Amino acid sequence: MYRETKGRGDMPQLGTETDGLGRKGSGRVSPSSRVANAKELLMRDFLCRTIFLLLLFVTVGCGSDKKQLAAGGVAVVNLKAVAVRLGRANNFQQAFQDKQADVKKQLEEFRKSLNDDYNRKVVAYGEQPTNEQKQELRTLQGQLTIKLNQQYTQLQQELKGFVQDKERQFREQIKPIARVIAQERGLSIVVNKDDNLILSFEAAVDITEDVIGRMADSSAESAKTKPK
After folding, report:
1. Same domain, 41 and 119
2. Which long-range contacts (CB under 8 A, 24 or more apart) does 78-85 make?
3. How many domains does the chain have?
4. For 69-74, what is the mean pLDDT?
5. Is it the case that residue 104 has pLDDT exceeding 70?
6. What range does the domain containing 36 cover?
7. 30 Cβ partners below 8 Å, 6+ apart?
8. Same domain for 44 and 116?
9. Quick check: is 19 in a domain?
């Protein structure tokens, strides 16, 4: 029998069996309860073993070399550094400036054409146009402004597409070389080093220098075999 100590309310004393709601039990444990308790103990033992193995795996992994840490992971290449070191950045900048100058020239020619259309209409109406003609000139001016803005937007998109094409071509040149280097290190994915996306990475997965070296060698070989 379990006893309660009076003078302390109904709070069960140490050793008093309750059902989890503060109510005292009979003190007997049914067979189903024993089975449940046994299952709970087995589950706790399984979880403890699992956690131990996981901790052991992490500890062993931390002690392995960089190549093993990188195996099956992600390689990082700094495309900007590759472009600068190989002189591609200067070539790209020059190509962009040439394209930009061409776009500006086209826009200026289009603007001049619109102004000529407007000025011809002004001359045709003379120095004292009627109110109706003045309204027509204002409407024409608005229409020409809209056309100029549309042309500007179109040329800006053309310039943006030019830049994207150049970047895509550069990526396609790097891709096979970067893939081979990554596979040699046991890496399966290659990403561009972008400080806005990548916070931290191991030096072992940075393949930038290897990519620069092999692309330089490839360019040198192409220059030797290129007919003069």
Report:
1. no
2. 78/192, 78/193, 78/206, 78/208, 79/170, 79/171, 79/174, 79/192, 79/193, 80/193, 81/193, 81/208, 81/212, 82/174, 82/208, 82/211, 82/212, 82/215, 83/170, 85/212
3. 2
4. 62
5. yes
6. 31-63
7. none
8. no
9. no
Minimum mean pLDDT range among 36-40, 93-97, 200-204: 36-40
Pair 53, 87 in one domain:
no
Asked if residue 149 and residue 50 are part of one domain, the reply reads no
59 and 96, same domain (yes or no): no
pTM of the model: 0.57
List pLDDT tens digits, range 128-139. 999 999 999 999
Same structural domain, 49 and 156: no
**Phi, psi dihedrals of residue 171, rounded to the nearest 5°:** -60, -40
Whether pLDDT at 74 is above 70:
yes
Same domain, 181 and 216: yes
- What is the rounded average pLDDT of the residues 182-201? 85
What is the pLDDT at residue 103? 93
DSSP letter string over 179-227? HHHHHHTT--EEEE--TTT-----GGGB-HHHHHHHHHHHHHHHHHHS-
